[in-house]
Amino acid sequence: MNSLHAPAASSAAASADVAAHSLFTPLDGIIGAETDRLDLSRPLDDRTVEAVRTAFRDHHLLVIRNQSLDKERMYRFAELFGPIEGHMIRLSDGSKWDAVHTITNLDAGGNPVAKPFISSNYFWHTDKSFLREPSLLTMLHAVELPPNGGDTQFADMIAAYDALPEDTRRRIDGLKSVQSLEFMRRYTGSAPPTEDDIVAAPPIAHPLVRTHPETRRKSLYIGMYSSHIEGMSEEEGRALLEELLEHATQDRFVRTHRWRHGDLVFWDNRCLLHRATANYEMGKHRRVLMRVVVKGSVPE
Ligand code: SIN
């Protein structure tokens, strides 16, 4: 059964709730809802925008089928949720990603490679948690897919928090974990960040248990950027973070999205972890997704 994280509906929000629930169908399993009843190649009317926002608040992961969007249309749809985020990541030629960019398994010559230049996205994470204002949502649009696999997985951090034993919840409520780009690069075996990147994004402490700004539900805020726990020895903090990550990414909290051509998928980084899955012949088949990210707020 799909678990809804919606707050109690006020009468003012009731009509958006009804529209959202008739537009989107909950996916089987823990999180997410889908629709094939939207055409994002044209601007949406206000009522539909409100319905999509409501469905996003309630399901945290939305799948919109059968789209064919260019960068401009994808940008316009994403900015309905907030300001679009710039990127720090440098590609092998030193350039930075555009606001709407592609993530691929291709080398500079456009050929599929078994180990792409950026491979940290194969580890559980929530986007840009190392920033003061981490990403609100991330949107991917399937452009080219391998014949099988190349899935993306999502883990529900609200359900994971709710399932913790009462004494663990008491132990971790109020703790802060330090999120660090430098730590992530070491943890994932990636190239170290540049001096400029470290200055632009020094390590920052965020609540280990995050409160969703719209639903007020609590969730675990963890993943590959979580380096250690403030006020705890490094060893104890690492052990706690690994224990929480193992708990939170059990099958019962995870949805695997099996991509179809034309899928547009977006998720709430404030309460989900995600990762790419290397379950296809990466050195042989092309996988190209368009990606855009909406900026979020300081976690509370
Ligand atoms: C991401 O981590 O933003 C991308 C996930 C994917 O490639 O499936």
Automatic annotation (TrEMBL):
Biological process according to GO: sulfur compound metabolic process
Residues of the signal peptide: none
Keywords, in A-Z order: Dioxygenase, Iron, Metal-binding, Oxidoreductase
Gene3D superfamilies, sorted: Clavaminate synthase-like (3.60.130.10)
Classification via SUPFAM superfamilies: Clavaminate synthase-like
Keyword field contains Transcription regulation: no
Domain TauD/TfdA-like: 25-292
InterPro entries: AtsK-like, TauD-like_sf, TauD/TfdA-like
MF-aspect GO terms: metal ion binding; taurine dioxygenase activity
Keyword Cell membrane: no
GO cellular component, one term: cytoplasm
Pfam families assigned to the protein according to its UniProt record, in alphabetical order: TauD
Domain of life: Bacteria
Family statement: Belongs to the TfdA dioxygenase family.
Record-given protein name: Taurine dioxygenase
